[in-house]
From TrEMBL:
SUPFAM superfamilies: NosL/MerB-like, Periplasmic binding protein-like II. InterPro entries: Solute-binding_3/MltF_N (IPR001638), SsuA/THI5 (IPR015168). SMART domains: PBPb (SM00062). The keyword Signal applies. PANTHER family: ABC TRANSPORTER SUBSTRATE-BINDING PROTEIN, ALIPHATIC SULFONATES-BINDING PROTEIN-RELATED. Gene3D superfamilies: Periplasmic binding protein-like II. Pfam families: NMT1 (PF09084). Residues 1-26 form the signal peptide. Keywords: Signal. This is NMT1/THI5-like protein. Residues 45-266 form the Solute-binding protein family 3/N-terminal domain. Belongs to the bacterial solute-binding protein SsuA/TauA family.
C-alpha cells in the first residue's frame, strides 16, 4: 500500500465562526448536506480532501446509499486545521482532515466543549518523520542545528513542524524556548521572512520545504526523518454526527479508500490533479505523494501512529496548547474497519514501499525508476533537456529529495545523496575517504 501538520494557536482556535451552513440535516425533508473541512494545499490529506473531491468518489458513494435522500457535499477549504476544529465544535463541519498535532488539539477542544470528536482514519504518513523539514536560505552559512543557537527560527506553534524543531533541538541539548528566538508564523509568512532575511531558518510541514527547495529559495538544514518518530495526517469526525449518520461516515471512508487506491495506481495523474487544484508544482506534489514519495497513504489506523500520537501530547502540553489528551478514547477505528471489511487487515499490516530513485521525463505519463542514485545521475547527464524532475532517497533516512538539491557524497565509486548536511557529515565521519561533492561533479562522475 502507498502513501499536515498545521499551524495552531489558542488564538486561532477562538476564531469567530462565520456562517457555513448547518450540520448534515435534511433541509426540505429529502436533501442532506454533508459539510467536509479540508486543506487543499496540505497535500498529505488529499485522499480525504483535494484528490477525493476532484475524483467525485464521495458523492458517488452517497448516491449509492439509495435511502430516499438526495445528498450534497459542501467542501470547505481552509489553510490550517484550527478553523476546521472551530467549525466542527460549532456543528458547522461534520468531517475534517488535518495533521497529527492539530488532531490532538481537535480532540482536546472537542472534549473541553462537550462536543467530542474522533480520529477515524489516516491519510498520509511517514514512519520516520520525514514530512517535516528545517530549511535555511540558499546562501546561508548555517550547517547544523547547533548553528541555530541565538538565531531566529520561524515555525507554526502547535504544528508537527514545531514538534520536530523542539525535539531536534532537545536531542542536541538546546531549548527551543530559550536558545533560539522562535517566531510563530503561518507557513507563507515564514517563507517570506526567510526570503527577506528576517528569520534565519524555517521549520515547516509538507509541502513548504519541498516547494521552497524546488524554487531555489531554500536548502535543507535538517531532515525530520532523523528523529525516527512517525508523523501523519488523519480524518476526524464529530461524535454526534457519526452516531446520527453512520452510513455517511461509511460512504466517506469507502470513498477515501478508493482515492487512496487511485493515488497508488496512478501516482503521476494524481499529482497532476492535485497540482491543478492547488496551483502547487506537480513536481513538488510528486516529491511527497509519488510512487516512492516521502508520504505513504493508507486509511488504516496503525498502532505505530497511535503510539506516536501519545508521544506528541507532552509537546503540546509544554506549549500550553492542551492539557492531557486521552488518545485511546479519541481514536476510533471501528468505522474504517467496517467500511473496508476484509481489506482492513491487509492494509493494517502493509509497509511503505522501499525508497527508490526516479526520473520524471518531460511529456511522460509515468516516471522511470532506477536501482541506484548513480544510475539516475548517469541517465540525467545524458538527457539534461528531457528531465522534468529527478528524485533520490537520502542514503540513511530514505527521505526523497530533488537530485539537484541534495547533498552529494562520493565514497570511492559510490555516489550517495543526502537531504541535509548533517546526515552527509555523519556518513563521512564513518567512511574514510568519503567527501562532499557538487551536483555537477556527481553528474560527471556518474557519466
Amino acid at each position: 500500500m502507498k502513501r499536515t501538520a498545521l499551524a495552531v494557536s489558542t488564538t486561532l482556535l477562538l476564531l469567530p465562526l462565520s456562517a457555513c451552513g448547518g450540520s448534515a440535516e435534511a433541509g426540505d425533508g429529502s436533501t442532506i448536506t454533508v459539510h467536509v473541512g479540508y486543506q487543499s494545499k496540505t497535500i498529505n490529506t488529499v485522499t480525504a480532501g483535494t484528490l477525493l473531491r476532484s475524483l467525485g468518489y464521495f458523492e458517488k458513494q452517497l448516491d449509492a446509499l439509495h435511502d430516499g435522500h438526495t445528498y450534497k457535499v459542501d467542501w470547505q477549504d481552509y489553510a490550517t486545521g484550527a478553523p476546521i476544529t472551530a467549525q466542527m465544535t460549532a456543528g458547522k463541519i461534520d468531517i475534517g482532515s488535518m495533521g497529527d498535532f492539530p488532531l490532538l488539539i481537535n480532540a482536546a477542544r472537542g472534549k473541553q466543549l462537550g462536543k467530542p470528536t474522533h480520529l477515524i482514519s489516516v491519510t498520509g504518513y511517514n514512519l520516520r518523520g520525514g514530512l517535516n523539514t528545517i530549511v535555511t536560505a540558499p546562501d546561508s552559512k548555517l550547517a547544523s542545528l547547533k548553528d541555530l543557537k541565538g538565531k531566529k527560527v520561524s515555525t507554526s506553534i502547535g504544528s508537527a513542524a514545531d514538534g520536530t524543531l523542539v525535539r531536534a533541538l532537545q536531542r542536541i541539548g538546546l531549548d527551543a524556548n530559550k536558545d533560539i528566538e522562535k517566531l510563530n508564523q503561518q507557513p507563507a509568512v515564514g517563507a517570506s521572512a526567510l526570503a527577506s532575511g528576517s528569520t534565519d531558518a524555517l521549520s515547516q510541514f509538507v509541502a513548504w520545504p519541498g516547494l521552497l527547495a524546488y524554487q531555489g529559495k531554500a536548502k535543507a538544514l535538517y531532515d525530520g526523518a532523523q528523529l525516527n518518530l512517525p508523523t501523519f495526517h488523519g480524518v476526524t469526525v464529530r461524535e454526534d454526527f457519526a452516531k446520527r449518520s453512520p452510513a455517511v461516515v461509511d460512504a466517506f471512508l469507502k470513498a477515501q479508500a478508493q482515492a487512496t487506491d487511485y493515488l497508488d495506481e496512478h501516482p503521476v495523474a494524481a499529482a497532476e490533479k492535485v497540482a491543478d487544484a492547488t496551483q502547487l508544482p506537480a513536481e513538488v506534489v510528486y516529491l511527497y505523494n509519488g510512487a516512492h514519495g516521502i508520504s505513504t497513504f493508507d486509511p488504516a489506523v496503525k498502532p505505530q501512529l497511535v503510539s506516536a500520537l501519545k508521544k506528541d501530547v507532552p509537546i503540546l502540553k509544554a506549549a500550553k496548547l492542551t492539557g492531557d489528551v486521552d488518545v485511546d478514547s479519541f481514536v476510533d477505528d471501528s468505522y474504517v474497519k467496517k467500511a473496508l471489511g476484509q481489506d482492513y487487515a491487509e492494509r493494517l499490516s502493509s509497509t511503505p514501499p522501499p525508497a527508490a530513485s526516479e526520473v520524471w521525463p518531460k511529456d511522460a505519463t509515468e516516471t522511470r525508476p532506477f536501482k541506484t542514485p548513480a544510475e539516475l545521475l548517469a541517465y540525467v547527464a545524458q538527457h539534461k533537456d528531457g528531465i522534468r524532475a529527478a528524485y533520490v532517497p537520502d542514503a540513511t533516512t530514505g527521505t526523497l529529495w530533488f537530485a539537484d538539491r541534495a547533498v552529494w557524497v562520493a565514497d570511492g565509486e559510490n555516489l550517495l545523496p543526502f537531504v541535509a548536511p548533517a546526515t552527509a557529515k555523519a556518513y563521512i565521519a564513518e567512511h574514510t575517504g568519503a567527501r562532499v561533492i557538487t551536483y555537477a561533479d556527481a553528474l560527471k562522475q556518474a557519466s
